[in-house]
Structure formats: C-alpha cells, structure tokens
Amino acid sequence: MDIAASAPPGAAPGAPVPASAVPSDAELPVWGGPAERLRFLLRWAVLAPSRHNAQPWAFEIEGDELRVRGDPWRALPAVDPRDREMAMACGAALLNLRVAAAHFGRATSHEIVAGGRPDGILARLRLEEPRRPAPGEEELFEAIPRRRTCRQPLDGREPPAGLVARLARDAAEEGCELRPVEPGERAAVAALVAEADRRQWGDRSVRAEHARWTRTGGSGRRDGMPPWALGLSEAAAFLQPLWLLVADPGAVEAERDRRRVATAPVLLCLGTGGDHPVDHVAAGQALERVLLRAAAAGLSACFLGSAVEVPEVARRLRAALGMRSFPQALFRLGYGGEGRPTPRRPVDEVLRRLDPMPPPPAELAPAGRSR
User: Looking at the whole model, is its pTM more than 0.85?
Assistant: First the structure.
C-alpha cells in the first residue's frame, strides 16, 4: 500500500520532529512481521545528515526487503548537479538502519545498486537471522540521536589519543579511505577551500538554493536549516534569503573557512576508489560510521563542502593531498558543536510503499553483510 504523509501522534500539523525524539527499545514491534520491523527501524535512518538538511531519501518496503531511493524533488542542482551528495545522504541513512537493526538483534545484508536504473533505486537491504550486536556497535547506535553537524567554531581541544586511527578503520570497513590533512598541507588546502567558497558564493544559483533551504524558527517545516543551525537570530534567518539575492558573501566566507582550516584540531578527507553512484553511497555509509564514532566520543564535524563540490577544486585537492582515491568529504572534527537538533520528517512522509508480502526469493549482491 502507499503511505500518506502524517505528523507523529500528538504533534500539531507542521510541527518539527526533534532528531532526539527516538523510540525506546520497548517499542520494537516484536508482534509484527519483517515489514513492520523495517518500518520501525526507519526512525533511526531518517536521522542521517544531508546537505542543507534536504533529507533527499525515499524508502519502499516489501516483506523483509527495504529499498532506498533518492528523491529528485529534494535535489540540489546548484551545489550537487550529479546528485553525488544525494547518494551519500542515502548511504548515511542506510548505515543508520544497519546499526539500528544490529542493536535490536538482527543481522542484515545489503546491496549498493549500480547507478542509472530507471527506478532510481540506490540500495537494497534485507533483514536476516537474529544475532548479537558486535563490539562497538552499541556506541554507534546510542550516538545516532546525538550526532550533530556543526556550523559554528570548534574549540582547540585535541581528540582522544587513537581516535583518528579508529575512525580510519571505520571508513575502511565500508571500503573508503579517511586521510588526515597534515600540518604541512594545511596552507594549500586552506587556499583551495577559500577559492571554492568564492566561486560558489559568486554563483547566484548557489545563493538562491541556500536561501530556499533556510528556515525561520516558526516556519513549521521539517526540513532545511533553522536559525539555530546557522547561528542566526530569527530576524536574520528571515532576512538572509532576501540578502543573498543581492549580495555575494564569498570573500567573507572564504576568509572564515581559511582560518578554520588553519586552526582545526583535526582536518579529515574521506575518499573513494571510484567516483560513481555506487561509490557515493559507500562514501555516505563510511562518513556516517565515522561521524557516529566521533559523536560517541563527544566530537562534532563541520564540513567544508565547497572544496569537493567544485569539480576543478576537488581535482586539485586530490593532487595536493596525493590521494589515489577521489575526495568525497572534507571536514573539521572537534569539540564544541553540541546544540539543538535540526528537524526531521516523520517516517510516514518518506516511506512511499509498504507491502507486508515478501518479494520472490533472490540473493542480494555481496556488497555487505553485518556480522
């Protein structure tokens, strides 16, 4: 059956859904079949990060199989013309679902689907046999509602010893490379970030897209960037979309990010072996695993998206870091990013189809299986 959009029980129509409003273990529908359990687990999938908090995902459930699609109505053609970050957001949602399933005692198998399919499916996941969570998985699950994207300054405290190496292993588990940017490389990377900032903000379509996803606190929208996420007052959030239509903040943003690159406690670049949709979904899974592990240690990430969104700059960033892999995310990591969660759409708004009957038996391609 098709699922209609609805607000959560007791919520006023249009009321934001807090990212921290996750269900308790007692609510797992043990009485239901695989389809109802997958629907339940989507409550954690929708807490994944996405550019502009656009939440560009849609899901279908058929029996014990869940399919992940990108939502073209939530595409960002100005900053993400290849839908690369859309695929990464869907990958992050898929990782959250895998972690939640493990917490509730179920193994999963998943397949990342090659791009270009007419139906737009990016990945499939299937619930498998019961199993105990592996060591370290519980802290990832507990970090899902605590993870934040920080758009404000971080303090100068260093992360715990050994954490960056652990994050690199987490990325490798999803088939990706996580590379620290060394002190001697910071100046070159800072210059590239500043150049990308100026080029992006100088593009009127990029500014218009940013304005379109900026929200006021009273908008009642369950997506986009509310004032507190941008460090703006309510009045500034109301005026910023108008201001961006006529002003170019590129020079200011470039200088700010240049300083942040130079002073970041940790600067990391995530890369993939290829640069195709399957790689972008894998990058999203790796990035979310890294972010959850960091959040479990009390750290937040602040992204420097322009450096990987402007193709020419991304190529030069790859050369500057001597990476064989393709850069997919560049971000600062540190303390000080805790704050209010951004709103999320409820599950019924992103679940487009629910069919309790299982599909015909078919093995998933060996992209991954939780152990």
Answer: yes
